[in-house]
Amino acid sequence: MPRFSANISMLYPELPFLDRFAAAASDGFKAVEYVGAYDQPTAVLVDLLQEHGLTQALFNLPAGNWAAGERGIACHPDRVAEFRESVDKAIEYAKANGCTQVNCLAGIAPAGVARAELESVLAENLRYAAPRLAAEGIMLLLEPINTRDMPGFLINSTDDYERIAAAVGHENLYLQYDFYHMQIVQGDLIPTFQRLQSRIGHVQIADHPGRHEPGTGEINYANIFKVLDEAGYSGWVGAEYRPKAGTSAGLGWFETWRSAAR
Ligand SMILES: O=C(O)[C@H](O)C(=O)CO
Ligand SMILES: [Mg+2]
């Protein structure tokens, strides 16, 4: 049975961030994930997880100045020292809240730098991060993201992931397979999941078009959930979508799993 994690960077936008833990637990989620909460002391986050019986499924490495439009710094040639510091920060937070995987956002390609150089910086940064995270029992993930939602984002497809993973050459670099992005970029969702399953550390879901709840668009999630089960996928499935109505009101797709998990 798939285990779902509420992505509280996207779900419960009607609530302040720290109130979203309680809301996710009350709606039947057993785990939460988010882009990052580095502005909060670790103790606050740990208390919320404990109070609501939640697992921290995932968060991202510090991704630069999000409010200013940055979406990761890992491919930026002039930010290598900052990237290295960000690995230490992520380890500190992951160890505090028991999280065993972190996602690296490659970043938006800076203008005027050749793609080959950006990929080389990214690979070097990941080669730095992978063994350090492995030593702490934390999986490092790399997520391809479509460029309609994030114009200029460097890593867009599973081909991009595979090429970078080959350049990094460390086994602790897994794929974060977001079905929504993959539907836009390349389709072929199930065969690609099956082919790369041994390298997939985390999956995320949203329907397309609109990035709303499963069942609102063209992706057959009933079948995908069946495939995840048949494949023995044991990781979390991150519900990372923009609710069409209120978050709780839109959880019809989750009813079967929520009842079974109680
Ligand atoms: O947007 C996504 O799909 C990501 O998973 C993310 O963490 C950054 O937005
Ligand atoms: Mg995602």
From TrEMBL:
GO terms for molecular function: hydroxypyruvate isomerase activity. GO terms for biological process: glyoxylate metabolic process. The active site is at E143, E240. It holds the Pfam family AP_endonuc_2. Keywords: Isomerase, Pyruvate. Residues 21-256 form the Xylose isomerase-like TIM barrel domain. Belongs to the hyi family. NCBIfam families: OH-pyruv-isom (TIGR03234), OxoTetrIsom (NF043033). This is Hydroxypyruvate isomerase. It comes from Devosia riboflavina.
